[in-house]
Every structure is written in C-alpha cells, then in structure tokens.
Amino acid sequence: MAPVQIGSDGQLVPIGGPIVSGPQPPPPGTPATQGVRLSLLIEFLLQRTYHEITLLAELLPRKTDMERKIEIVQFASRTRQLFVRLLALVKWASNAGKVEKCAMISSFLDQQAILFVDTADRLASLARDALVHARLPSFAIPFAIDVLTTGSYPRLPTCIRDKIIPPDPITKAEKQTTLNQLSQILRHRLVTTDLPPQLANLTVANGRVKFRVDGEFEATLTVMGDDPDIPWRLLKLEILVEDKETGDGRALVHSLQVNFIHELVQARLCADEKPLQDMYNCLHSFCLSLQLEVLHSQTLMLIRERWGDLVQVERYLPAKFLTLAVWNQQVLGRKTGTASVHKVTIKIDESDGSKPLQISHDPPLPACDSKLMERAMKIDHLSVEKLLIDSVHARSNQKLQELKAILKASNPSDTSFIETALPTLVIPILEPCGRSECLHIFVDLHSGMFQPMLYGLDQSMLDEIEKTINDDMKRITSWLQQLKFWLGEQRCRQSVKHLPTMCTDILHLSNSASHPVGSLSRHKLFIKLTRLPQYYIVVEMLDVPGSPTELQYKYSFLSVSQLEGEDGPLCAQLFLHFKANLEQLVQDTTGRGARPGTKRKIISADQMELEPKKPKRSGEMCAFNKELAHLVAMCDTNMPFIGLRTELSNMEIPNQGVQVEGDGCSHAIRLLKIPPCKGVGEETRRALERSLLDCTIRLQGRNNRTWVAELVLANCPLNSTHTKEQASTRHVYLTYENPLSEPVGGRKVVEMFLNDWNAISQLYQCVLNFSHTLPEMPSYLSLFSEVRLYNYRKLVLCYGTTKGSSVTIQWNSSSQRFHLALGTVGPNSGCSNCHNIILHQLQEMFNKSPTVMQLLQVLSDTQAPLNAINKLPTVPMLGLTQRTNTAYQCFSILPQSPTHIRLAFRNMYCIDIYCRSRGVVAIRDGAYSLFDNTKIVEGFYPAPGLKTFLNMFVDSNQDARRRSVTEDDNPPSPVGVDMMDSLMNQLQPQPQPQPIRGGAGGVYPPLTSPPAHYHTNVTPSPSMMPTQSPGTIHASGSPSGALRAPSPFGPTPSPSSLCIAMGQTSFASPHGALDPSSPYAMVSPSHRGQWPGSPQVSGPSPGARIHGMSPGNPSLHSPIPDPHSPRAGTSSQVMPSSMPPPRKLPQRPWAASIPTILTHNALHVLLLPSPTPCLVPGLAGSYLCSPLERFLGSVIMRRHLQRIIQQEPNLSIVNSNEPGVIMFKTEVLKCRVALNPKNYQTLQLKVTPENAGPWSQEELQVLEKFFETRVAGPPFKYNTLNAFTKLLGAPTNILRDCVRIMKLELFPDQAAQLKWNVQFCLTIPPSAPPIAPPGTIAVVLKSKMLFFLQLTQRIPVPQEPVSIIVPIVYDMATGLTQQADIPRQPSSSGAAALMVSNILKRFNELHPARQGECTIFASVHELMANLTLPPGGRQ
After folding, report:
1. Contact 908, 872 (CB under 8 A)
2. What pLDDT does 258 receive?
3. Pairwise CA distance, residues 41 & 12, whole Å
4. CA distance 1321 to 1342
5. Are 1007 and 1013 in contact (CB under 8 A)?
6. Which residues, 6+ apart, have CB-to-CB distance to 985 below 8 Å?
7. CB of 1093 closer than 8 Å to CB of 1055
8. What is the per-residue pLDDT across 172-231, written as a single tens digit (0 to 9) for each?
9. What confidence score (pLDDT) does residue 591 get?
10. Which backbone phi and psi does 901 adopt, to 5 degrees?
11. Which of 101, 1157, 1159, 1293 is 20 to 30 A away from residue 87, measured at CA?
C-alpha cells in the first residue's frame, strides 16, 4: 500500500507531492520523504473529528440559535469532505503498489543518465581549458644534489627568509637612551613654544608630554624627530567631562567622536602657527559645550524625577547658556519673597573663551555669608542640583535673617539663632528651653517656603502656623505666645505621665458658673488622680509681665462628687489653692521638719498644707515640673489614707489618724478599737480585746491598691507545734486588694477588714472554748490529736495514730459559716483522708455546735470505721443481673450523719453503721424503720440472718453480759428504742429550762441531775451533771451522741424521702446515753419532739416497766470493750475461725433491727477483703471480697434462687419449715440450699437422690462443692445461678457427665495425663464466639444441649498459658457430641476450632453412641487428652 501524507492545504496526497500526468523524478540530492501509515491517518482523522465535536459542545450553548445551526452545518460539510477523501484514498491504495514500483525504476534510470551526461561534460572542459597550457618544469638537479649529498637546502631564496624571520629588537638600554633623548627634545620644544597658561599642568616622561586640564581633557603629544619644523604628533586624547549623576558611569563622548576630534586636533597641530594654543582653544570650547549639555540633561532629569515644577528651564542655547528658574511665584501659588521668580544662568563667556562656565543670579545674591556666596558662584562640581541648592541655601539664609529681625524687634532679649548647615531658625519658646522644645523653622530648598517643626505639636496646628508665617512673617509673635502655653501644658503632662493620673483640658462641672473653679484662667489643666477619681489637681498657667518666654504656674486642689449615679454629671465641691512658695518648701523627711517617730498630719480637708520639698539639683531636665510631680505623688500617697480615715470615722471606728512611720517614707493608720462582732460572746470579746496589742493599716505595693492590716496579738489561747508560732506575740497580716471600681481607701476595704475580724472572732471563740476544755480532755484524745497551726485565721488539727490526717477550721465570711477542709500531711500526704465521705456532715455538725472537742471525739470514733468502709468496692460491675449490659454498684456509701454511715449493697440491702466511742460501732439492718420494726423502708429488703452473722464477729472474750436466748423471744415494741428515755422521764422531775450564758455567748440546753434513787449500777452521764463538759457545750438535740432525733448535721428530710428515718436511739452508744466517757449529750425527752421525723411517745413502752430489758439498750447485748485495756483488739483477721460457735438465736424478721455492737477490729475484719473461710485454697475463686459482701451476696443468690425455681419447669419447690432454707427437687434429686451455719459467708447445696440410682456419693459432693465455689460464690451473678439450675433439670445421664467435667475443673491434679485443664462456663465469656452478649446464660437445654468449655493448656515452663473457648452441642436424639458451628470473627482462633472439630468427629466415628449413653464426658476427655495446638498459640 502506497504511503500518503497530508498536504499544507489539508488534502491527502501521496508521498512526493500530488500525482501528475507523467512520472517526474525527484530532484537530485533530495532525500525521500517518509510516508504515513493508513491506520495512523485514520486515527488522526477520528481524533480531529472528536476534538471538533467537543469544541462544538462547549461553545455552541453560548451562541444564538442561528449561529449554532451554521456551525453544525459547516462541521458536517467539512467532516464529510474529509472522510470522502479518505474513502477515495483507501480505494486507490489497493492498486498503488505497482505504480510505485514503476515510478521508483524510472526515477533510478533518470538519475543514472544524468550522472553519465555530467561526467562527459566535465572531461571535455578539462581537455579544452586546463590541459592546453600545462607544462612540466625543468628538473632541479643542483638542488637535488645538495639535498642528497649535504642534507641541507642552501639555495633557498633570501626574500623568503626576510619575510618570515623578523629582525632582532633593540635592547632596553638603547630604548631608554632613545626615550631620554626624546624627552630632552620635548622640553626644549616646550620652552621655545608659546604655551597657553591653562596648559601649565603638564608632565614629560618616556618621550611624551601630557597636558591635563581638570574637568575638561587630557592630551598626550610627542615629536617624530629633533627638527624644530617637525609638527607635534597627538598620541592620545581623553575627555575628562563626567556626569556622575545621570551618566551611569559611561563615557559622555563616543569613541568615533573622540577619533574625529583627534584627527581634527592633529590637523590643527600640523597647520597652525600656534599649535598648542589652537589645540587648547579647540578642546576647551568642546568641553564647555559638553558641560553645558550635561547640566541641561541633569536639569531635565531633576524636573522629571524630584523637583518637578519647582525648577524650570527658562532658555537653553547649546554652547551658549542655560537659564533656570526656581521659587516661581506662579507655580507655588503664594508669595515667597520680594521677587516673583529667582533665576540662575549658566553661560560660556564670549569675551574670553578660556574662562570656565560662568554663574549669574537674578536677583543678585545678598552679601550675607561669604562661604555661601562662594559656593553658589561655582560650577566646578558639574552638578546642577548642587548648584541650585547652594543658590537657594544662600537665599534661605537671607529669609531667616529677615524673620530673626522681626523676633528681635518684638523681644529684645530674643535668643533665637540660625543654623547654616540646614537653613533653620531655632526659636526658644519657654525659658529654660531644651533643644527638643524649641520651635524650628526651616526653609524648604525646593519651594522657599517656611516650614515650622515642633516635637509633639499637632500636624494641623503646624500647617496653620506654616500658612500664617508664609503669608505674613510678622504674625509669628502671636503664635509664639500660644505655643508657650501649649508647651507649659505639655511639660505638666509629661511630668505626671509616670504617675497614676489622667490629664484633661476641659472638665464639665454642673456648678461651674457658681463655683470658684469657673473663674480660672483660660490656660489650665485638670489632672485626675486615677486611684482617687474624686480628686483633681488644677494647674493654671499665667503670663509673666516683661518676659514673653516665661510662665507662672498656680496649683489648686479640687474635689468633685458624682450626681445621679455613676453616669451623672460631676459637681465641684472643695477648691483650695496650694501655697505659692512651693520652690522654697523643700521636702526633707529626715531633717528639721519632723523627728523620726513623731506624729504629724500630712493633709486634711481643712488645710491642704504641703511638706517642704528637696532643693533643686543641678543637671535636672528643665522640662520636668518637679513641683507638680511632688504634689501629685503626695496627694496620691496621702489621699487614700484620708479617704480610709474618713470611712473609719463614718463607721465610728476610733483611730489615731494618718501617721508618718520610720524615717518619714511611709504612712499608716492605727486603730484604737475594733467594733465588736455579732454572734460572739462577751467573754470572747473581752479576751480578744485584751490580747490585741496593735492594729495598723498600711498601703503596700507600687500600685497603691493593696492594703495590709497588721494585727499584733498576745496571750494566744492555744500552743501549736508550728515553729513560727512559739513567740509570745503573734503578727497577723490581712491583705486586701482594693477593687478597681471602688476608690482607694473606700468603704469596701473597711468592710473586708471587719469581715476578717469577724472571722477571727468566730474562730477565736471556738479556740477559747477549746482551750478551756483542754484540761478535761481524755488522755486518748490527747494522744489522738494535736494542734498543728493556729494563726487566728485558721486552726489546723492533725489527728490519727501517726498524726497523718488534718482538719482545717476557718470561718467563711461570705456564707457566715465555718468551713472545714480535710487533708493528709507527712508520709500520708497525697493520700485521701478517710473522713472526706462525711465532710459535709462534719461541717453541718460543727456549724450547729462549734465545739472542737466534740469534733475531735467524732473524728476519733469514726476514723477506724471509715478506714474500713473505704476499703469496700464501689466500682460498678456488669453482668450481675439478667440485664448484662446494666452496671450495678457493689456498695454505695451514703453518709447520714457524722456517726451514721449507710451501706447500700446492689441497691437491695442496707446496712446502718453507727460509730460510738470507746472503739465500738453499732450495726443494724437499715431496711427496718427506726420507728416501727414491723415496717420496711421503701426500696430496700431485709437481710435474713444478718443478726446471726454479725454476732459471729462479737468479741466473745469480753462478752461478760451476753444476753440470754429468752431476751430475743420478747419482740420490742415499735417505740421500744425510747424505753430508757421514758424511764428517765418517770424517775426524774422536769425542771424549767434556764438558759445559761456560756463563754461563747450562746444559749445552752437545760442541765438536769439524776435523782438519788436512780439505778445504782448506772453511772450518771456528764450531760446530766451540773458541770460543763465538752459533751454539753451544744444545743438541745445535738446529734453528737444519741440517735433519737434526726441528724442535724445536714438537711434533715423526712423518712419518706430518705426511705429511712435518720433518727437517733439510745442504742447508738454502747452504754446508751449513760457512757461516762462519751461526749455526746443525752437528749431530754421533753425536747425529743423538736426534731422533724421524731416519733411522739404518749407513754412508756411495755419494756419500760422492766429495768434493763429494753431491746434498744445494746449495753445488755454485748460488753463495752475498753480500747485502752490489755485485752482490747484481740479480734483479728482470723477471728471468725477462732471464735467459738455462735449461740443459736431464733430467726425473727425484726432481729436484725436490733443493733449489734462490734469493736473496730471486728469491723475491720468484717469489711476487709479476705479469703473465703472453710474452703480449700485451690477451690476458692480469684475474686477476693469481704465477709460482709460474701454474706450479702449469698443472701442475694438465695433470693435469686427462689425466683429461678419458680420459672424453671424442671424444678419444683418443696416446702420447708426451716427459716432461711430453700428446698426444691428435680426428677431424681432433692436439693437443699442454705447459708453455711459456721460462717454465714457461703451458700451451700445439699443434694439427695430421690431413689437409689446411679448417683455416687462422690458425684454428689462434687456437685455441692461446684455450687458453693463456682456458682453461689463471688461475684454472685444471677445468670450463673440460672445456668446451674438448668443443668440440675437436665436428664440424669447428661447431668452426670457434666458433674464429671466439674470434677476435672475442681480437682485438676487427679487427671495428670491430660494436656488441658477444663472450666465449665455457666455464662458466655467475652472471648467466646459471638453467639450472644458476654454474661448471657451459656447452657441451653432443648432437643439439643449447648454449653461452653474453656480449655487452658498445661505448660510446665513458666509462661502464659493458652486458653480457648469451645462451644459444644450434644444431640440427645443421636448421642453425638460435636463443636457448635458458630460464625467466628476473622481474628478468632480458626485453627484451634478446626482441630477441635476434627478430634470430636474422629471420636464420634471411632466410638459411636449407644442407646441411652451420653458421650459428653468421653468426648471432652478425648479433647483434653489429644488436642495439640500448632506453634503460635490459638492461631
């Protein structure tokens, strides 16, 4: 197929051009053009068509409808023609091969013929033209003989040698001799020739003479011989005219021009009689013209770039002159001097062409300064800008001289001067005047205008001054007077800039018309003291007669008041003038003005006298107004004290006024007496007044907003262990930050000081009462606590065996209450204080009865119990109930009062713990109401067996008065807890209440004394004695000891809101209210009904007729252990196991409502996590919990079991007469579930077969142990128990196999040949296949049985064992045991599951199930014996 190509017109043509009629060979030497493949051509056409279609799609939407149609038709026509040509080319290409071959043959033959013809033509031309005259030379025989015989060519022509080899050069000596002779000839020639004086600068050297005319040219000449007629020869010509401003460093004359001038000068040298003179005239004329041209070009650039219209070219004639105009009045638009235009003319002197450029000025320059005149008349620098500047510089000096003459006429003592470096007139405004304070008047060199400049002056005023003095120079004197007052004001502003002030020219006052402040002079300044916004210092500025450059200052003091609130107008009040002789009143705080330590008033509202100032030092700035700065600083320092003294006087607080302290550099106010505080007893007031030695108020800090009140106190009632509090006197510093919105020294500061004094008084009252009770403090409290810090503002007490806990007592002025803060110190710092859970209750108790001794007693009684309570788990747990995703809190600690802690276990059971003195606590079931034991508190359930369980922890070694069994047979009445109070009410008379004023000024409850015939075995309580003890210093109904009334330590809701009464009964103390060491007061029966929620007793209860028989008196239940006795604390962690078996008490629902007395050690054992007793360590679970949690968890599991039995169809309940025992049965087994009677901490299962069956005693024991350790044990989950009951309801053969698996779990050592340990999963573990949420029941019994096993690999080496979860399905119909087919996660153990399935399948194939036989255990045993995981664990 013949190759084709696209022509320049877009047509398809064959290679070599369009086809013609005859074959045309290509021109010779032309390379063949490469063709294009047809497939590539088709692809190009398609791409071009697609490209055009794309362009049409983008461009057509923007055109009109008609244009779109035209474009589409043109595209279709153009594309159609192109493809028609392509079609024709394709049809033609099928037969183009033969034509192409013929064309190639014909072209080759034509090329060959052309070569033949060209060869013949060349040969003929050579024969006719070149060979006709061709001859052979004669043979050079002599030359050949020379070469062959001698080896040289001596017959070579000498012309060749002369043209190739140069002659030898002359020597340096000859050269130097020649040049010296030539220099002598030149000197002789110069002497004998008429030489122009301008060419006197010449140099003769090396046979040359060099003439140099600076700024014009440099010519080098010589002569070619010693004949006088020989003309001068110009060797070198250099033009020295330079344009350093606009030439950019390039030559001003072109090299061709230089050559032309060179030839011209050389011609003159050869033809003229005076060649050197003619040479100078020619070159000098050219250089002057060139300089004038340079100046003209500089002027044009100056106009274009910098000066603009300020300079104009009046006229320019090349090689003649240049006239420039500056300070043109028409251009500037205002008058600048006497002449309207100032001209500068630069010209060439026509009379004497040898002179340089001449400068002339119109009008002529004044003869003011010879140096300025000289500079303005020269142009040797060849800079038109410098020439203009020198010219206007001289004229500016003239203008400033005229202005200075005007100033001298108005002020003969004028000290202004002119600076010539930059035309400036410096005018002092206010004497003495620094350089920066002078008015500088410049003359603009471009425009000739006056330009004033003064540092700090507003630009608008400067513009106005400039316009005025340019229009009329005589008006400058009025401006100087205005600037004098402005500068005086600026000096005042700068003098007080570093002080806390704010300056203003105008102060709008509502009464300015009638007040003296309205008659002040026009030039004044109001200086506001920002710290004292009601005070101003007014500065008046007055003229000094006869001294135009001096000012007189007059200072006044102004006080204002605000009308109509904060945004109202100001009203002037006090207006006083300071003394006029401030210059002579030199302040000297250490001199004769006052002796150190003497008292004197600084300033008062009646007379604003100032203290003398220090003498003026030499070298001080003249702009600094020392008198004003002293006045402002003095007022800013003293006026806060004046304001504070005024506020103290308004509040009737006696003081000594403002006093100067030390060397006179500080001030202070001493208070003579501080007003008494409300709510503080008279005794406290007198004691505090006696101990207060001094009270001084000072200002501190540079901002004068910080007040410091120093209190000096003696006779501190408490001795602390702090090292800084061992002196006889104590210094207390109270700091107050004055609010920004309040004036310094205002009422707010006094109120804050009185609030702090009230806080000191309130705390001092508590401390004083505490100091009175210290001699009566029990010894154990003295060892328990110590006073760590008392600085009159807070009291820090450290307590505990190591004094590692602390309580801080402070009075909060904002809430008017005491605030307690708990912490840890010493080695325990960083730990939490155990009393933090009852902090709110402690704070409420202390605010109702602020007795430190009582607080220490409560802290002592509650520290050990709270330490034990804090160890209880409070973290929420999942999976405890049927709702596995709901978290339940194990223990909730709910403080009810400082001594009453409620424990809620899983929101079902409630335990009340009452902390009592002498190291014991009282514990009862909080689900029973305190007012009626037959009623249950809503939201809680009674814990059966709680009384029996708690009695196991009673210290039997000190149980000397154990109640008999018959005492529990008589149920107490609902109000039996008040029996002792009723008995006391019958035995003692009711005296009238007599309020007694104590040391703290409070009203105390009536003090009663017991009758003579009172019970002889009972020691009277201190609360019933006439003497005051720490326990009696609180109001009636104090919650410190008795539990009869609701706790007043916090808000006391009703029993219906708390679901339990927060009442107090006499059983709260081991001896009731008769404990001689208890600080808790006995509540009088007459005041019992004062507390909300307290039951009203109409008469004595039945138990009240029998002395000592009240069930509310726990002193009859158990003994009171003495914490200081040798036998105290004998109970320990092993106490439950070492105790004798408890006595059997009758099970009654109200038994647990009677409190049980336990020692702190016993409570510690009860609440501290410990191993489960009576269990082999290997059988106990990993969950460690306290005995109380195990008991309550077992009770919950027993409650769950009752509900599960009712829901399970395979289980049926069996009635039982035994309390706390659940009996049920399956088809073949009878089950009995009850608490372990030995410790009540585990739930035990007793299984008995219905009839003699396949069950062995060992299997039954395994089932019982599994229930006790794995089902009903910690963490006591409902679903675990439910899954176990489902197993109990399974067929016998299945249950027996499950029991055998349980045996492998409980006793793994009995099967040593197995590779795996097994664990029966009653709930779905988290790592199990995702069949159900974790925690769901893992046992399903229908036609098939599904359960889960966890296999743990036995590894002898110490490394982490591998565990897998195996879901197993047992088909009861076929007897096959296999792995459950559960979809697994991609990351789960796929390899292990596959191996388990293979082992179970192989076992089923080798041991097919027989009828009635269960294969679960056999399959699991096979799995445990033969399963081997590949390396890599579960993968």
Report:
1. no
2. 87
3. 10
4. 18
5. no
6. 1085, 1086, 1100
7. yes
8. 998 899 999 999 998 988 888 888 888 888 999 988 999 998 888 999 999 988 888 888
9. 37
10. -115, 130
11. 101
Angle at which helix 275-305 crosses helix 255-271, to 10 degrees, equals 150
- Can you say whether residue 752 is alpha, beta or left, with left for phi > 0 and alpha for psi between -120 and 50 degrees? alpha
Classify the phi-psi angles of 929: left when phi > 0, otherwise alpha if psi is within -120 to 50, otherwise beta: beta
- Measured in whole angstroms, how far is the alpha carbon of residue 915 from the centre of its chain? 47
Q: Which two tokens stand for residue 857?
A: 């007693």
Q: Which of 907, 877, 973, 966 is nearest to 934 (CA)?
A: 973
b/e map 1085-1107, b = 16+ CB within 10 Å = bebbeebebbbebeebbebbeee
871 by Cβ neighbours in 10 Å (0-12 / 13-18 / 19+) ranks as: middle
H or E stretch including 326? Answer: strand 321-326
Q: How many CA atoms lie within 13 A of 785 on its CB side?
A: 24
Are 1068 and 916 a contacting pair, CB within 8 Å? Answer: yes
C-alpha span between 54 and 46 (Å, rounded): 12
Scanning 988-1068, the segments in alpha helix (DSSP H) are 1055-1058
Which pLDDT does position 376 carry in this prediction? 63
Q: How far apart are CA 1245 and CA 1266, in angstroms?
A: 9
Cis peptide bond N-terminal to 1006, omega within 30: no
Placement of tokens 């005219």 in the chain: 241
Helix (H, G, I), strand (E, B) or coil at 1067: helix
The whole-number pLDDT of residue 1188 equals 92
Position 465: which residue type?
I
Count Cβ atoms within 10 A of the Cβ of residue 21 and give its class: 0-12 exposed, 13-18 middle, 19 or more buried: exposed
Rounded CA-CA distance 962/1338 in Å is 49
Give the strand order in the sheet containing 729-737.
655-661, 666-671, 692-700, 706-714, 729-737
d(CA 344, CA 347): 10
With CA atoms as reference, report the closest residue to 487 among 580, 553, 538: 553
pLDDT tens digit string along 1284-1306?
998 888 888 898 899 999 999 88
Tokens representing 710? 């120093």
- Residue type, position 910, single letter: C
The structure tokens listed for 1425 are 């014996």
How many Å apart are CA 55 and CA 701, to the nearest integer?
82
The answer to whether 596 and 663 are in contact (CB under 8 A) is yes
Residue 1009: how many other CB atoms lie within 10 Å:
13
Q: Is 675 left (phi over 0), alpha (psi -120 to 50) or beta?
A: beta
Q: 1400-1430: per-residue pLDDT in tens?
A: 999 888 888 888 788 899 999 999 988 888 7
Q: Which residues of the chain, if any, have pLDDT below 70? A: 1-34, 246-249, 329-340, 353, 366-378, 380, 565-566, 581-622, 663-664, 702-703, 740-743, 745, 956-1150, 1174-1182, 1252, 1357-1358, 1384-1389, 1431-1435
Q: Peptide bond preceding 432: is omega within 30 degrees of 0, i.e. cis?
A: yes
**How far apart are the C-alpha atoms of 780 and 649, rounded to whole Å?**
51
Number of helices and strands in the chain (H, E): 30, 44
377 CB-side CA count, 13 A: 10
3-state SS, one letter per residue, for 1114-1161: HHHCCCCCCCCCCCCCCCCCCHHHHCCCCCCCCCCCCHHHCCEEEEHH
- Phi, psi at 1190, each rounded to 5°: -65, -40
Q: Using an 8 Å Cβ cutoff, are 207 and 182 in contact? A: yes
Which amino acid, 366?
Answer: P
Structure tokens given for 992: 């009238």
Strands of the sheet containing 208-213, edge to edge, are: 202-205, 208-213, 217-223, 232-239
